[in-house]
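REQUEST ID: PR-0412
SUBMITTED BY: lab tech R.K.
PRIORITY: routine
TASK: structure prediction, single protein chain
INPUT:
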Amino acid sequence: MLSNIRVVLVQTFHPGNIGSTARAMKTMGLSDLVLVNPRAFPDAEATRLAAGASDVIESARVVTTLEDAVSDCVRVVGASARLRSLPLPHYDEPDTMATALVEDSHHDKVAIVFGRERYGLTNDEIACCSHQVSIPTNPDYGILNLAQAVQVLAWEVRRAWRCQSRSNSSRPAEERSPTREQMIHFQQHLSRVMHMSGFITQPHARTEAQLQALFARAEPSRKELSLLRGLLASLEGQIGQQP
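STATUS: complete
OUTPUT:
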């Protein structure tokens, strides 16, 4: 299960933070590290600060977009120090998030996404996620550096994994959660039908973001998403036949 849990770092500025993140991951048994447009990588400072976790550094993958990093994941949690305007589901407690991630990781890839050192994730990057999580720090001084944040959430994941590792959770494929790529295709299909039907007559990002959040909260299975796609295809066909 732990091999299915991915840590994604977006545009990390200091390469040493990549090394410290690798070390934080390995202490909790995580090994899948993906880097989105790091400023400098590979880098000697990253390797030095990784200490005994150089294998995590060496196997890390570099991609150009966050979509590339998480498209195969069924649950993508954006770590953010503050709630954004996007109405995505938010885990009030990291342990709840960790339990959900570990449950999905029995069969599928999942990810925790961390943003830049100075200002975290943008709204567009949060929109690539299915959920958000914040670490409940001291409200008078809630500053964590990148590797510390990774360490806290990775520890929560390991604790949840230890609680669940003896269970044998097996679900048919159609009952499992869809990947982010499948959800994005559904959202694009829904958007197309809304415009074709006249429900939306001009770009309306807020309406589409609210619907995205609705389906994120509903957490449809792959079978349910397939039913929704079939409904949309039927509506699309009927609309196309209208004079």
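NOTES: The two ends are 53 Å apart (CA to CA).
REVIEWED BY: pending
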